[in-house]
């Protein structure tokens, strides 16, 4: 199995993409520690799924916007599972809002969760990998939004571009430690984050119509790309990004 014997940490894994990726990594052989903020039942059921696959799973609660959460998550994951081979920075929010009257708190919270939180999480995971001395893989759940704009996402798209920029810089900083750092760029994936936005049938049909593969994404669509970047199949891939969008980005006209 591609992730046999590896320990994977995933942030924001009580629901959506993070949950699918955590369970998917276990399916491919990994033990998994998952971070979440509020959804205890979601996190516990993800651990139950991981254990059903015969792997170890542990759920650790913490708000990634607090820099201390990063140190605590990595320390508790190492206590429970022994080490960190793969770190998936996935936790994120996207409270859709117009630009001209964006509340300061919405802007700041989005930055703190999506970008500041990622910075300290990646730093904590990288320090653990450096201490272990045998490399690792860091994967950021960035977005197609790192490449394109969104009218109601002016606070969000910069966090996704920033996340990819962080991966590019840490790929250089951590290369000497054999730690690879890459970004995934999901397109529109059906999860709670956009449930309300896509409840608008006209918008949903427009979005679907833009996708050459003919459908919006499901959280499970991110499992294969994550496992690839996590595994030794990607041993010479670092500082890279991979679009997982059914072809939406290239469909201009
Ligand atoms: N869905 C999409 O179309 C796309 C999503 N992405 C990115 O993928 C990632 C996952 O999104 P998605 O699965 O759709 O979203 P969901 O809303 O379905 O899930 C978000 C997850 O993040 C957790 N989370 C939210 N805030 C925090 C926090 N402060 N600290 C720790 N955990 C937190 C939630 O946990 P809890 O509920 O327990 O708080 C939940 O487990 C995000 O970074 C998003 O930007 C990128 C491109 C497209
Ligand atoms: C939440 C949105 O539906 C989703 O988030 C992203 O990053 C994608 O670009 C979509 O806009």
Describe the SSE topology.
Blueprint: E1 7-10, H1 16-27, E2 31-36, H2 40-52, E3 57-61, H3 67-81, E4 86-89, H4 104-132, E5 136-141, H5 157-175, E6 179-186, H6 201-209, H7 223-230, E7 241-244
Parallel strand pairs: 1-2, 1-4, 2-3, 4-5, 5-6, 6-7
Helix pairs in contact: 1-2, 1-7, 3-4, 4-5
Task: Report a brief summary of the structure.
This protein has 253 residues and is α/β, with parallel strands linked by helices.
**What is the beta-strand fraction?**
5-15%
Q: What's the gyration radius in Å?
A: 17 Å
* Main beta-sheet strand count, sense and barrel state: 7 strands, parallel
The level 1 CATH classification is Alpha Beta
Pathway: Carbohydrate degradation; L-rhamnose degradation
Family: Belongs to the short-chain dehydrogenases/reductases (SDR) family.
Catalytic activity: L-rhamnofuranose + NADP(+) = L-rhamnono-1,4-lactone + NADPH + H(+); L-rhamnofuranose + NAD(+) = L-rhamnono-1,4-lactone + NADH + H(+)
Pfam families: adh_short_C2
How would you describe this structure to a colleague?
Strands 3-2-1-4-5-6-7 form a 7-stranded parallel beta sheet, with helices on both faces. The chain has one domain (7-244): NAD(P)-binding Rossmann-like Domain (Rossmann fold, 3-Layer(aba) Sandwich). The chain starts with 6 loop residues before the first strand and ends in a 9-residue tail after the last strand. Helix 2 (40-52) links the parallel strand 2 (31-36) and strand 3. With 253 residues, it is of the alpha/beta class. It is globular. The protein has helices at 16-27, 40-52, 67-81, 104-132, 157-175, 201-209, 223-230; strands at 7-10, 31-36, 57-61, 86-89, 136-141, 179-186, 241-244. Helix 1 (16-27) packs across helix 7 (223-230), helix 3 (67-81) packs parallel to helix 4 (104-132) and helix 4 (104-132) runs parallel beside helix 5 (157-175). The chain is built from 7 helices and 7 strands, in the order E-H-E-H-E-H-E-H-E-H-E-H-H-E. The model has no long low-confidence stretch (mean pLDDT 98). The site of the ligand C[C@H](O)[C@@H]1OC(=O)[C@H](O)[C@@H]1O has 10 residues, from loops.
